[in-house]
Design a protein that fits this description.
Largest sheet: 7 strands, mixed
Structural class: mainly beta
Strand content: over 45%
Helix content: under 10%
Length: 118
């Protein structure tokens, strides 16, 4: 069992940066691939980024490549999403998720709101 709690969202101007954090509880954090997803109003939830169990492999949605960076600290049971060069289109609720077997995600956080003003 894994509980996930996101933080770090907020209001930022276009071109600015935010760093999202996801704190995990449970003893087996390191056996999960971790992902970030987002859902904008009126739109379906979409994949943003993923990081492997060890942190050695990452993947990104095309629309964030070069702007966002996912990382993790297994000792602290934390996952991060550094978001740079933010755009108004990045406005959404951002969710952290844990996957035992990609592409199925087993656990989700409650989300954190990111709003980018133009």
């Amino acid at each position: 069992q894994v509980q996930l709690v996101e933080s770090g969202g907020g209001l930022v101007q276009a071109g600015g940066s935010l760093r999202l954090s996801c704190a995990a509880s449970g003893r087996t954090f390191s056996i999960y691939d971790m992902g970030w997803f987002r859902q904008a109003p009126g739109k379906e939830r979409e994949f943003v980024a993923r990081i492997s169990r060890s942190g050695g492999s990452t993947s990104y949605a095309d629309f964030v490549k070069g702007r966002f960076t996912i990382s993790r600290d297994n000792a602290k049971k934390m996952v991060y999403l550094q978001m740079n060069s933010l755009k108004p289109d990045d406005t959404a609720v951002y969710y952290c998720a844990a996957a035992r077997n990609i592409p199925s995600y087993d656990y989700w956080g409650q989300g954190t709101q990111v709003t980018v003003s133009s």
